[in-house]
Amino acid sequence: MAVNTKTSLKKRDSDLANINKQMAILNGEPFSNGELPSFAKKIKDTTDQFPLRPKKLEIIQVNVGYMCNQVCAHCHVDAGPDRKEIMTRETMDKIVNVIKTTGAHTLDLTGGAPEMNPDFRYFVEQASAAGIKDFIVRSNLTIIRANPKYHDLPDFFKKHNIHVVSSMPHWTRGKTDTQRGDGVFDKSIKALQELNERGYGMPGSDLRLDLVYNPSGAYLPGDQASMEKDMKAALLEDFNIQFHNLFAITNLPIARFLDYLVASENYEDYMYALVDAYNPAAVENVMCTNTISISWDGWLYDCDFNQMLDLKIDNKIQHIDDYNEDLINNRKIQISQHCYGCTAGAGSSCQGVVA
Amino acid sequence: MYENRLAVVERFFYALMNKLILVTKNIIMDKTYYDPKDLRKFGKITEWSEELGTKFFDYYGQVFEEGELTAREKSLIALAVSHAVHCPYCIDAYTGDALKRGITKGEMMEAVHVAGAIQAGATLVHGVQMMNKVNKLEM
Questions:
Q1: Among A65, A98, A208, A344, which residue's CB has the most CB atoms within a 10 Å radius?
Q2: Per-residue pLDDT, B2
Q3: Closest residue, chain A, to B97 (C-alpha)
C-alpha cells in the first residue's frame, strides 16, 4: 500500500505524532481483550527473565538528532528533513566524559542521519580520542552523495576507524526505493562503491562495513544468514560491491511503521505474526539488556525504540547530567507490546539476530 | 400519479437497503467458507488428534528445512503449488514467506506461471487422447 513518505508524522500533525496515541494502540486490542498476551505476561510465563533487567553494559547508543535527508516509510524515529531536534556540543561533551570511564566497549551513533548534526565531526573526533573499542556510525549511505560537503565522509570514517553500519533493504532498485524513497537505491550503490574503494567491507579488512536489512512491508525478516548470502551474491555480481555482515532487523510497530500498519489494516495481523514468532531464547540477549540509549537532549532510555515512545529508564537517574553506570544498571527495563519485535524468530537488535 | 410513483421508488429503495443489510450481515457473520483469521488457528488441529497432528507438523517442518534444495527454493515451490491446489490459506502463507526471504515479485510471478503452465499442459496433453479417439472413430 502506498504511504505518505514526503514528511514526518510530526510535520503532518498526524494523530500518531502523539506518543500517547501510539501507546494506546499498543495497549489496545488484540492485547486489551486478552486475544494476545501482553509482553510482560509472555516473558513471565515463558522465561525466568521477569522483570527484565540489564546485564553488563556493552553498548552506548547515542541519537544525535532526528533530522534526516530521507523520510523512510518504516522509520521508527519519524525522522526527516523537517525534524529540528539536534544534539548540542554541550551534551556531546558530557557523553565524551562518560565514554572516558564507561565499561562499555561499543559506541553507536544513530539519528536521523547523524552526519547532519553540525557538530557530528567534532563529536566523532572527541569520542574517538576518548577511547572506545568499536565505534559505529549508522549511515544511511545517501547522505554521502546528498551534498558536496558530505562527499569526503568515507575518508573521514576511515581516518577515525569508524565501523559503518548502513541500511540497504534489498538488492533490487524497486524494493529499496519503495521503502526509502525514489533514487535511494542508485545513491546507496554509489556510496557503497566509494566505501569499498577506501577498503571498507573488503574481505579481511579492518574497516568494518555491515548492512542492515529491514523488510519493506508488514512481514518479518527471513533468516539472516540466508539473506546475507543472497545479498552478498547479488551486490557482488551486479555492482561489484562487498560488505562484511548483514543484520536483519524486524520493524517495530512504532511511529511511521505503526502509522503504515494501521492505515493499511495490517496492524492486527502483524502483531499476531510477532507474537506467533515469539522466541523465549531471544529474551535473554535482547539488546536493552546490554545497551543504554541517549537522546539528542541527554535523556537515558533502555533502547532507541523506548526513546521514541518517551519511556525513560526506570531509575532515579534519567539524564546524562547525573550519569552513574552502576546506579543505572540496577533498574527494571521498561517494556510494552512493541518489545515483541525484538523477540520474534531469531530475535532482533541493532546488531541483528540475538538467538 | 406523482405520489404513486414516489411510493414505488420508495419501496424499491427500501427493498434494496434491506438486501444490502442482509448481504453485509452475511459477510460480517462469516458466512463464507474461508476466513483469513482461520490460518492462525491451523495449529489447533492437533487438539482433536494430537498424535497425527503433531506428526504432520513435525513432518511439515522438516520438509521445509534447508536440504539438497534450499529453503528459498522450497518456498517458491510451495507458492506455486499453493496456486495449483487453489489453497487461499497457502497462498497467504507462502506469499508472506517469499517476501520474508527477499524473493522478488518477478520470481514469485514466474513460479505461479510454472504452476499455470503445468495445469494448462495437463489439460492440453489430454488433447492427444481426444485426437486418438477421433482418429480411431473417423473413417
A1: A65
A2: 64
A3: A222
CATH topology of domain A9-342: TIM Barrel (3.20.20)
Query: What domain count does chain B have?
Result: 2
Q: Looking at residue A2, what is its pLDDT?
A: 47
Read off the CATH number of the domain in which B116 is found.
1.20.1290.10
* B77 and B139 assigned to the same domain: yes
Separation CA A51–CA A288 (nearest Å) = 13
Residue spans of the domains in chain A: they are: 9-342
pLDDT band for position B26 (50/70/90)? low
B72, B100, B105 member nearest A220 (Cβ): B100
Q: Is residue B23 predicted with pLDDT exceeding 80? A: no
Classify residue A351 as left (phi > 0), alpha (psi -120 to 50) or beta.
Answer: alpha
Domain holding B117, by residue range, is 70-139
> Does a structural domain hold residue B19?
yes
Contact between A231 and A190 (Cβ < 8 Å): no
CA–CA separation, A213 vs A225, rounded Å? 12
The minimum CA-CA distance between A32 and chain B, rounded to whole Å, is 18
> CB–CB of A304/A5 below 8 Å?
no
> Do B19 and B79 reside in the same domain of the chain?
no
Nearest chain A alpha carbon to B101: A222
- Based on the fold, state whether residues B75 and B28 are members of the same structural domain: no
What is the number of other CB atoms lying within 10 angstroms of the CB of residue A77? 23
| ipTM metric | 0.71
